[in-house]
Amino acid sequence: MPEIRVAIVGVGNCASSIVQGVSYYGDPDHKAIGLMHWDLGGYLPGDLRFVAAFDIDERKVGLDIAEAIFAEPNCTAVFCADVKPTGVKVAMGALLDGVADHMESMPRKRTFVVSQAAQPSKADVVATLKASGAEVLINFLPVGSEEAVQFYMDCALEAGVGVVNCMPVFIASRPEWERRFKAAGLPIIGDDIKAQLGATIVHRALSNLFHQRGVKLERTYQLNTGGNTDFMNMMDRGRLASKKVSKTEAVQAVVGKRLEDENIHVGPSDYVPWLNDNKLCFLRLEGALFGNVPMNIEVRLSVEDSPNSAGVVIDAIRCCRIALDRGEGGMLVGPSSFFCKHPPIQFTDDEAQRRTEAFITGGAPAVAPKAVVIAAGQGSRLRAIAASKPLASLVGVPMIERVADTARLGGIDELVVVTGYEGEKLEGFLDEYAARRDVKLAHVRNDAWTRPNGLSVLAAEPLVGDRFVLLMCDHLFDPTILRDLLHQPLGDDEVLLAVDRRLNNRLVEADDVTRVDVDDDGRIRRIGKGLAQYNAYDTGVFLASRSLFAAIREDAEAGGGGISGGMQRLADRGRARVFDIGDRFWIDVDDALAFEQAEIEHARLATKAQP
Ligand SMILES: NC(=O)c1ccc[n+]([C@@H]2O[C@H](COP(=O)([O-])OP(=O)(O)OC[C@H]3O[C@@H](n4cnc5c(N)ncnc54)[C@H](O)[C@@H]3O)[C@@H](O)[C@H]2O)c1
Fold this sequence. Notes:
Layout: E1 4-9, H1 13-24, E2 48-55, H2 65-68, E3 91-92, H3 122-132, E4 136-139, H4 146-159, E5 162-165, H5 175-184, E6 187-189, H6 199-212, E7 216-226, H7 229-233, H8 241-252, E8 264-271, E9 278-289, E10 293-304, H9 305-326, E11 330-331, H10 333-339, H11 349-361, E12 370-375, E13 393-394, E14 397-398, H12 399-409, E15 414-419, H13 423-437, E16 440-445, H14 454-459, E17 467-472, E18 475-477, H15 479-485, E19 495-500, E20 515-518, E21 524-528, E22 536-545, H16 547-557, H17 563-572, E23 576-580, E24 586-588, H18 592-609
Parallel strand pairs: 1-2, 1-4, 2-3, 4-5, 5-6, 6-11, 7-8, 12-15, 12-17, 15-16, 19-23
Antiparallel strand pairs: 7-9, 9-10, 13-14, 17-22, 18-24, 19-22, 20-21, 20-22
Helix pairs in contact: 1-9, 3-4, 6-8, 10-11, 12-15, 16-17
Nicotinamide-adenine-dinucleotide (NAD) binds at residues 9-15, 54-57, 93-96, 98-99, 112, 140-143, 148, 166-167, 192-193, 195, 198, 228-230, 305-306, 308-309.
């Protein structure tokens, strides 16, 4: 019988539910109740075996896991009282910042009581993990335990154990941690589990419904109350920052048009002891229907908090084990986006599920097209800032790196960069970047870089498939533009151009931008710099079929050869359409003023995104 050996950090309510669940589903009669997957990649829920556990509460340390899960202050539903002893005793953990100060003054039966047992060093925890043969570690530490989480993550890496990070200290979604897991060949799924039918998924589904039905979402809140130690811990607002980011971004990611901060409030709102592990969530969404007529919807959701997350964790553990079986390390994109609130890359729930199922069956995950990045030109108007435009450092990061990172965040796995001016230097940097970030990246030189930019696109022709994304090294943009563009249908010989309809966008230099005239069906009529009649701007982000190569070649033979020239030829045949980016950020950094604006904008966005 296959077996998945699991280590638990934090034997609280969530751990109680998952341990009970594994026992409950050991009985095949319960197969049909409340699971997303019975058989997941050949593993059943009952195949999980708990081989190590760490906690700091004196009422849990030293007990068999099967007893510790029912010890105070755990207060979740007991749906399987008959859990057989595991033979594994809960070990004393390293306290660090695991327990918030305010919890010490709370009634003993409701709060954490720190054991006086000696705390382990990193080497001790690593040794325990190794001796247990643990394959996957599940992290259930309290919100705000930054130091403690990092401590256990270091231990997992050193002991060679995969991780499911169930809570919102960001690990899988931090590139430096993701790289460490990748380097160690260990899978990680994170961050912050999205419960089976909890506040987040209901809020996302309703927000998505507004978006799909053309209702403008104007304001929304999600107020959560509960009486377990998780809610008690979160009364300390100082520990809440990342939880709030995690829950808010999970909703913002599906609303279509991002809401201003003051129009969205999502968070744990109050601690009501008698609710115990029952979470009450109050949701409200306000919007505008046809004719700008107002509407609103309110939902009151009542769920037992911990069992609600346990089934999702059981699936995440099994995905982690599948990755181990396949020798796949690093962050698991599909499972992280489906099972977690704060994955490194957000997808719609349908897309996240599709990617997870593809991961489970081992079928080729939907292969994202390659992105071709044009970085051959001289950028003479930026010479005062840097000799090579792609390497000009914008808020400490070279522009080409920003564009490549944005492409990856937007869902691209493989890049082709076309170099030219100062080619050798740029190629050296790209090789270093590819190694540092573990990115598949090829570069190809266009020696005719002084000639029209379409020739750079042609240089990449042998390296891409039927579809590819085309980007400019000096056009910075919100990665969600690319993510959404990749989901657009594209005809066999079509090209889709992301456009900005805001003709008053203050970040656009109106005299220099490529203008686009779009008809009522979203097809491009005319495209070019000097158009007198236009209703959109070209953002430099394309989803293209190979027809673009033929069109550019045709244009070059007629004496042109620019990207716009090729696009005009496709437009003349009705094969060039637009994708409206809405009010999302983009900027063409082609002179010192634009550079300065881009720096300000990036600093502003970075500050906003801080947990
Ligand atoms: N219930 C859900 O649906 C859900 C969903 C997403 C995320 N989460 C998150 O999962 C985490 C666990 O939730 P829970 O309800 O089980 O919390 P809990 O308060 O019941 O359990 C936390 C456990 O961690 C232990 N602990 C504290 N510091 C420790 C340390 N330094 N080392 C080892 N153990 C330590 C505590 O003694 C306690 O047993 C929380 O961060 C919560 O926000 C829960």
